[in-house]
Every structure is written in structure tokens, then in C-alpha cells.
Design goal:
The chain is mainly β. It has 3 helices and 19 strands.
Amino acid sequence: MSKINKKLFIFLIFLINLLNSVNLWNLTYINLPMNKFNVLHVTLYYTRAFLSIKSTTDEIIPTLIEVTWPEDFFNIKPKVYPFRKIYSNNYDLCKDYCDNEIIQSMVTSVDRYGRLFVMDIGRNLCEPKILIYNLLYKNELIREIHFPGLNDKDLANLYIDPYGHNNGTDVTTRIYITFYQKNYFIVYSYRENKYWKFFLKEFYPCCVAKKPQNNINLSELVIRRDGTMYFFDQTNGDVFIADVYKLDYLLLMNMANKSMVLPIKKLGFLLGIPKSIVMDNKDNLYYFLPRDGAVVRWDTRFEKI
């Protein structure tokens, strides 16, 4: 056997052993066998992972679980975040018993200050809300933001600006909440503890107003290092862009207003209907195409507003 073949053989043996040693998170410790739930979302924070799960049998189960990363590496029992064990169609009971507890975790994210943001889409009469936990101090629940008038079918995604764009005046966390079949999104400032609604209006490059689309569904959002905001329509794969500094200006000049209009421009379209859109720190955008079972990488550095 030549030296090259020997090295290749050793590498293949190593790869097979590595694949055989891969573990899955074992949730049977908390009485959750694998066939009882689907994983909706995973957020990693150093050696901690936060799983948003949903019951496959419509049973009432905990929907936010903290486990170790890598999977079962430290042999630590999973942690269950407080959840509501009984649902009610009585509004008063729902209001009293659904606060401070998670109904259905959909998406989570961690900011640079070690705060865990949980998008709880609610259920029945329990309205959607965002719960914020302090991961650096006993996983303490420190804040709740409620969204009256919305239901569990409305909220789409929660996104934290990883670069802290705020014109350098607000060094705290800003989160963006997008919706299905809505022509607006919500911006929440942790320091101000308030949120604003931004309606999206498409403009021609020459800044002449265009008739807005009726079926706009910009439910995904990512932000580039230079402040370019990318919105994605998950019904047809269209891509729109806006300027986060324009959003900053609107907030600065209209802080007292609850709603504003953010101009957007259509950039083009993706190769299909996207899922799981992320952007790395080199401005490469990745998205998954379920139709093709493929991950696409797009270098956005040459796109300008």
C-alpha cells in the first residue's frame, strides 16, 4: 500500500469512527421520546443549545429545552423552561396563567450581553409574546413583551442585529420581528423597552412611489455589516433591500410615533423559495432550498442600495 493510499485509508477510518460517535440529544430524561416532537429551531451559545420543539401529537409538552453543545457531550440532564401545562379558552384564566410561562416557543436568539430572546407564538386565547432571560444569572426571566391583537399564525421570525447598528447612540440590543402575510415588521429596543411598527413601501430607484404589492410577505430579514437590510418574500423568493441608517433616522426624528414607513427597493429574486436564511461575518448569505435539498451561498458584497 502506497503512502497516499495509507493516509487515505487512515482518514476514512477516522471519518467512520467520527460519524459513529455522533450523538443526538437524549430527551428521555425529561420523558420526551424522539417520536413525540419535532425540532423547530436551535440556538447555540458557547456550550449551551436551546431547542424550540413542537409536539407531533398535539400533546402539551415543554417547548423550550436547554441542552449541551456538542450533543450530550457533558452528560448533563436537559433543562426545561417554565411552560403552561393547562390551556384554557377562558380569557381571564389565560391572562392570569399564561404570563411568565412559555406556551409555544418558535424561535430563539441570544444577544451579545447573554440575554436569551424567546418568540412565544401563544395558543388559543394566549397572545404572542417575547420573553427575555438572563443566561448569565440563573436563567432569570427579566422581561416580557406582549403583542395584543395577533395570533399564533402571525409571527414569523425574530432577528437580533449582530453588529449593533444604531448610529452609535444606542449600544443596547435591537430586535426585529417579522410576520406572515403582513406588510410591516416591528423594531424593539431593549434600552427604551418599547417597540415601533414599520410599514414597508416599495420605491423605484428614482424615488418615485410605486403602488405597493398586495401579497407582500417579507417574513425573513438579515442585516449586512454596512447596514444593508435584506428582506425575503417566502411566497415567491423576491429580495428587497433597505438601509438600517434610514431606519435609525426615522426613529430619531419620530421617536414618539408608534408607526412609520420604511422605503424598500426590489433587488431581484433567489433561486427558489428559501428557508433558514443566515448571513456570516464576511457578508456571505446562505439559504436552504427544500425543493432541491441544496444550500446556496450568495456573496452580497457587490450589492449596493
